[in-house]
C-alpha cells in the first residue's frame, strides 16, 4: 500500500496544522522511567484526517495530550498552526486550546455540574461568545450528534454513549482547526460510531486537521492516512483504501 496523504483534501487547504519533530516524552525517573514517546516525527495538514492505531501503552493518548497542549515534550517540538506549544506559558497554551483545538477525551471529561448544552457551550463562552449565541451553537452541535433532546440533562443522567456524543459536540463547536479524538467511538454501537465518523470526516473536508485514535479498522478506514505506533514510535504509515486492506496491514 502506498503512502497517500489527504486524498480528500481540498486544494485550498495546504498548510500544516500539527507538526511534531523528534518528540520524546518520558514519564517518571530511574527504574520507573517510561518513554511514552520515543522520537516521534509526524505532520498533519489542514483538511487531512489521520487515524492513529497501536497497542495499549504505545503512546497514542500521550501523542494527543501533546498535540492538544495539555502536556509538553521532554525534548523535541510540537507546533500547532506554526506555534511552538512547548514555548508557550500555561495561559498561552490554554488560549491556544480554547481557540484552535477541539478535544474528545478517552474518558469524556464532561463537567458533572453542567447540563449537556452548558458543557458544549462552555468553550465558546470562555472565548467571549455571548451566552445566547453559545447556546444556539451548542444546540446545533448536539443536533449534529443526534443528542439535542438531552440538552438539559446532566452527565450522570445520560448513558455512556450519550455522554460520549455530548463530548464530541463540545469538541466540534466553533471553527477549530485541529480536532483530536481519543477513542471517541468506544461507548457507541456501530451505527452511532459510523455517524460520529461522518461528522469528523465532514470537519476534515471543511478544512480542519483531524486526528482519531481508534482500535477499530472500520473506523480507521474513514481516514486519509493511518499511523501505527508501537513503543512510542511510528512503525508504519499507510494510505487507506479499504477496511479490509487496513486489517490485513495491521496484522
Ligand atoms: N502520567 C503518566 N505517568 C507515568 N507513566 C505514564 C503516564 N501517562 C502515560 N504513561 C505511560 O506511557 C505509556 C504510553 O501511555 P499512553 O496512555 O499514551 O498509551 P495509549 O496508547 O494511549 O494506551 P491505551 O490504548 O491503553 O489508551 C504507557 O506505558 C503508560 O503507562
Ligand atoms: Mg490511550
Secondary-structure blueprint:
Elements: E1 16-27, E2 34-45, E3 49-53, H1 60-67, E4 75-80, E5 83-84, H2 90-100, E6 101-104, H3 116-126, H4 131-144, H5 160-172, E7 178-182, H6 190-205, E8 209-213, H7 217-220, E9 225-230, E10 233-239, H8 243-250
Parallel strand pairs: 3-8, 3-9, 6-7, 7-8
Antiparallel strand pairs: 1-2, 1-4, 4-5, 9-10
Helix pairs in contact: 3-4, 3-5, 4-5
Bound molecules: adenosine-5'-triphosphate and magnesium ion.
Describe the structure.
The model is unreliable at 1-7 and 9-13 (pLDDT under 50). The protein has a 6-stranded mixed beta sheet with strand order 6-7-8-3-9-10. A 4-stranded antiparallel beta sheet has the order 2-1-4-5, with helices on one face. The chain is built from 8 helices and 10 strands. 34% of the residues lie in helices and 25% in strands. Helix 3 crosses helix 4 (131-144), helix 3 runs parallel beside helix 5 and helix 4 packs across helix 5. The protein has a single domain (5-111, 176-250), classed as Rossmann fold. The structure holds adenosine-5'-triphosphate and magnesium ion. Adenosine-5'-triphosphate binds next to strand 2 and helix 1.
Instruction: Enumerate the distinct ligands.
Output: adenosine-5'-triphosphate, magnesium ion
Overall geometry: globular
* Percent of residues in helices: 25-40%
CATH superfamily: P-loop containing nucleotide triphosphate hydrolases
Question: What's the pLDDT, averaged over the residues?
Answer: 89
Q: What is the CATH architecture assignment?
A: 3-Layer(aba) Sandwich
Structural class: alpha/beta
SS strand fraction: 25-35%
Number of helical runs? 8
Strand order of the largest sheet: 6-7-8-3-9-10
Largest sheet: 6 strands, mixed
List the uncertain runs: 1-7, 9-13
- The first-level CATH class is given as Alpha Beta
Give the tally of β-strands: 10
CATH topology: Rossmann fold
Straight-line N-to-C gap: 14 Å
Amino acid at each position: 500500500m502506498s503512502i497517500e496523504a489527504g486524498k480528500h483534501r481540498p486544494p485550498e487547504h495546504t498548510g500544516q496544522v500539527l507538526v511534531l519533530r523528534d518528540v520524546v516524552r518520558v514519564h517518571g525517573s530511574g527504574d520507573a522511567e517510561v518513554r511514552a514517546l520515543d522520537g516521534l516525527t509526524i505532520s498533519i495538514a489542514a483538511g487531512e484526517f489521520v487515524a492513529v492505531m497501536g497497542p495499549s501503552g504505545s503512546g497514542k493518548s500521550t501523542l494527543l495530550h501533546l498535540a492538544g497542549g495539555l502536556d509538553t515534550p521532554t525534548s523535541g517540538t510540537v507546533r500547532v498552526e506554526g506555534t511552538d506549544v512547548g514555548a508557550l506559558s500555561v495561559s498561552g497554551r490554554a488560549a491556544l486550546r480554547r481557540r484552535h483545538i477541539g478535544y474528545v477525551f478517552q474518558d469524556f471529561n464532561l463537567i458533572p455540574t453542567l447540563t449537556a448544552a452548558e458543557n458544549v457551550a462552555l468553550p465558546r463562552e470562555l472565548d467571549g461568545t455571548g451566552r445566547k449565541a453559545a447556546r444556539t451553537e451548542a444546540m446545533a452541535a448536539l443536533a449534529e450528534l443526534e443528542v439535542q433532546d438531552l440538552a438539559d440533562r446532566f452527565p450522570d443522567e445520560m448513558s455512556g454513549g450519550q455522554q460520549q456524543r455530548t463530548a464530541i459536540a463540545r469538541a466540534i463547536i466553533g471553527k477549530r482547526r485541529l480536532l483530536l479524538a481519543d477513542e471517541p467511538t468506544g461507548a457507541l454501537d456501530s451505527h452511532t460510531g459510523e455517524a460520529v465518523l461522518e461528522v469528523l470526516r465532514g470537519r476534515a473536508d471543511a478544512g480542519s486537521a483531524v486526528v482519531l485514535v481508534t482500535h477499530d479498522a472500520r473506523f480507521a478506514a474513514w481516514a486519509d492516512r493511518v499511523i501505527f505506533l508501537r513503543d512510542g514510535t511510528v512503525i508504519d504509515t499507510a494510505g487507506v483504501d479499504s477496511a479490509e486492506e487496513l486489517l490485513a496491514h495491521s496484522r
